[in-house]
């Protein structure tokens, strides 16, 4: 029978394995493309020692932890090519549930989207429903339909960056330009909590401006 110390060591080993995610090679690939891992992004977004990961070893689909009742801001980090076709209707139902929660939380808690990589297909609708969207220069894109489909339908050739990159959003949508690079993205994401709707209980009623 294992001793308490052995159990603690086993727990730490399992936690370290989970933190490695897909492994060292995939982490290196993520860094090589100018991106951080999910946990690295969270560490930069939140104050040191304040993040507590729930159910670290559990695989589940539950995302309802009473955030709206608690008044906690909702921050979405988006880096995905969209839904898997193999999931079919289940994926569409999942999108619907996310959008529904976005609308329920609108004006109640701050909702912030940070686009860290590709955000395509149904995945772009949720950020569009949030209060603020930040896009990382040169690595983020937002579009409903990608360059390959555009070419197949209209014969027009366009790059992902030209179609839905941060620069395109700045020129054609209500997005403000920024020079922030990947490793500094978390600083701008802390700014808009003072600019959220006055109906949001956890925020001041008078907007203020801060620079970083």
Keywords:
212 residues; alpha/beta; 4-stranded parallel beta sheet; 9 helices; 11% strand
Would you mind describing this structure in some detail?
The model is unreliable at 178-189 and 203-212 (pLDDT under 50). With 212 residues, this protein is α/β, with parallel strands linked by helices. The protein has 9 helices and 4 strands, in the order ααααβαβαββααα. Helices cover 37% and strands 11% of the residues.
Shape summary: globular
Counting DSSP E segments of at least 2 residues, the number of strands comes to: 4
Helix content: 25-40%
Mean pLDDT: 76
Q: What's the helix count?
A: 9
Radius of gyration: 19 Å
* Unreliable runs: 178-189, 203-212
The succession of helices and strands, N to C, reads HHHHEHEHEEHHH
Distance between the termini: 54 Å
- Beta fraction: 5-15%
By helix and strand content, what is the structural category? alpha/beta
Largest sheet: 4 strands, parallel
Topology:
Elements: H1 4-19, H2 24-32, H3 38-45, H4 67-70, E1 74-80, H5 88-105, E2 111-120, H6 125-128, E3 132-135, E4 141-143, H7 147-154, H8 160-164, H9 166-172
Parallel strand pairs: 1-2, 2-3, 2-4
Can you summarize this structure?
It contains 9 helices and 4 strands. By secondary structure, it is of the alpha/beta class.
């Amino acid at each position: 029978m294992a001793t308490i110390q052995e159990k603690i060591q086993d727990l730490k080993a399992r936690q370290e394995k989970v933190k490695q995610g897909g492994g060292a090679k995939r982490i290196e690939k993520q860094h090589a493309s100018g991106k951080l891992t999910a946990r690295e992004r969270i560490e930069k977004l939140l104050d040191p020692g304040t993040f507590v990961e729930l159910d670290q070893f559990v695989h589940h689909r539950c995302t309802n932890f009473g955030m709206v009742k608690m008044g906690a801001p909702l921050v979405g980090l988006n880096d995905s090519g969209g839904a898997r076709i193999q999931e079919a209707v289940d994926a569409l139902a999942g999108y619907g549930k996310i959008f529904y929660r976005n609308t329920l939380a609108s004006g109640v808690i701050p909702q912030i989207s940070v686009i860290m990589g590709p955000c395509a297909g149904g995945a772009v609708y949720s950020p569009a429903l949030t209060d603020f969207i930040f896009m990382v220069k040169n690595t983020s894109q937002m579009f409903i339909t990608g360059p390959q489909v555009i070419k197949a339908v209209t014969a027009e050739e366009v790059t992902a960056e030209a179609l839905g990159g941060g620069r395109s959003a700045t020129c054609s949508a209500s997005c403000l330009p920024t020079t922030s690079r990947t490793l500094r993205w978390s600083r701008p994401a802390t700014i808009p909590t003072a600019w959220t709707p006055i109906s949001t209980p956890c925020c001041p009623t008078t907007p203020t401006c801060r620079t970083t």
